[in-house]
Amino acid sequence: MTLWLEAFNTDFWYAIVGAVLLVLALGAFITSRQLIKKLLAFNIMGSGVFLIMVGLAQYQHGPDSVPQALVLTGIVVAVAATALALVLIRKFVLKGGQP
Amino acid sequence: MMWFDLALGLGLIIAAIGVFRSEDLFRAVVLFVTFGILLALTWLRLQAPDLALAEAAIGAGITGVLLLDTLGVFRQHEQDINPRSSSQLPDISRQWAANVLALIACISAAGLLAWSLFNTLKMPAPHHNLVTVVEANIADSGVSHGITAVLLNFRSYDTLLEVAVLLVAIVIGIGLRERVTTSANATSDEGQSKLSEPPALLTSLVRLLLPLLLITAIFVLWAGSTRPGGAFQAGALIAAAGVLARLGQIDIAARVTTMLRLGLTLGVFIFLIVAVSPMLTGKPFLTYPAGWEGTLILLIEFMLTISIGLILLSLFIQAPRPRIPAPVRNAIPATGPNAIPATGPNAIPATGRNAIPATGPNAETNKGGDQ
Amino acid sequence: MTLLNIFQTLFITIGCLFFLIGTIGLLRFPDVLTRIHALTKADNLGLGFIVIGLIPSMSTAADIAKLIVCWVLILAASSVSAFLVANQHIKKSKEFKDHDVV
């Protein structure tokens, strides 16, 4: 327990938050029936992964530009994936599917 | 300051739970945008201003616009095609299976994450870490901002592939767009009925903001070599400017022209040329010639900004939308001459999207009376 | 704690209070128009107080100018978006009534 308190700092706290988000979003992604909500859960899952990456990389030696750059790449890819998923969902709905 | 972090982290989790629990999609999307803004604040607390910029512009801004636009399309589509969207009853057994699966997945993911986080805490700090490596080499990278150096010099391979991923996304997006293949006057009708005249206040705000946004984008791009900023944030700003311009009815990427295609591919194209050309002199892929790093990085970033902005914007603008004159088209085969005057006078006063619910029932009653 | 610090704390606290009031209004008011009213009016006032409270902390004139530009832009954007939402709301409710009459 002392170990936890010693090493616990802002970065580690956000890594834990990221882990919680990841787990919650995973559950929501599987259970939700609406495609848009699956997409939102997928996005939040990605954000959780980003938080874990940056938080864990930084908690021992301060700001680190390598994971930050990777996460920046990840954010842009995530928005492209979201936009593409929305194109597919729209197409599906316009053809008569349930959103 | 720990209390602030505690509150922010809990706020993130609560916003996420709100997204998952709300039945109404609009509510979920609004909460998701809130989540994005909180996440931008979180990146600031994690001393990552680049990520905060990108998250605010992309995660909260552009993703929110895309989602809200999609919800608008769904609403319009429901009114067009099936006024009472039949809410299918969920298959109970399938839902049960999904719940059980989700429970198992959540428990195992939570266990794995808790275990690995706990073990990370027990590990001693590594002797080699990437921070010192980046600091030791940043003088040779051509830029003085660590993240830009990583993105475009140390790990430029990742960035090249990332832009290629974006290009693939927009190729699929353009491939799936609604092609207006009917006739010329149908397209002009569509253009007129769909976009009603925007309020003057909006157009003047757009006129005020557009140049400011473009200047900010160029500033952010330029700043990228010495402080937080860079191609991705600037590209997001350009895409935001494009979305805003569309609200004010200045369409930049409405038609897929050769120029647009050129703009979409420019980033990857220039990046590839810069990456491949050292191979002519026998050097490995993606080595910048000594002394030229800064210039080449700026050139690549400039082209990437244009491409990323246009790609994000086109993914928004080229997304499939319902064809507007649907009620007219449905009415013509049914009743012939009578349907058109019936929809006509009613359609004109009601503008834009709202014309559709107004004409729908009326066309029906007229059809009934005629027969 | 200098006099300037007290001044800053006071202004930022007042600004936060206005944000709080605006948020309470957003949550408690009954319909779209009153909610917009609460949100835009109280929040913009709060933002103004916060910006004034932050100005003494800035080191260069450029930073102060940036803060003020932020403030002005947010004022413009929030007033226009409030107008758009209100406009759409009025249009929709009117159409609803017309539809009922017909």
Automatic annotation (TrEMBL), chain A:
GO CC list: membrane
Topology versus the membrane: Multi-pass membrane protein
Transmembrane portions of the chain: 12-32, 39-57, 69-89
Location within or outside the cell: Membrane
Domain of life: Bacteria
Matching InterPro entries: NUOK/Mnh_C1-like
Chief location of this protein within or outside the cell: membrane
Pfam families, per the entry: Oxidored_q2
Keywords, comma-separated and alphabetical: Membrane, Transmembrane, Transmembrane helix
Protein name, entry field: Na+/H+ antiporter subunit C
Organism: Aliidiomarina haloalkalitolerans
Lineage: Bacteria, Pseudomonadati, Pseudomonadota, Gammaproteobacteria, Alteromonadales
Automatic annotation (TrEMBL), chain C:
Domain of life where this protein originates: Bacteria
MF (Gene Ontology): sodium:proton antiporter activity
Tagged with keyword Membrane: yes
Entry keywords, A to Z: Membrane, Transmembrane, Transmembrane helix
Protein name according to UniProt: Na+/H+ antiporter subunit G
Spans through the membrane: 6-27, 39-58, 64-86
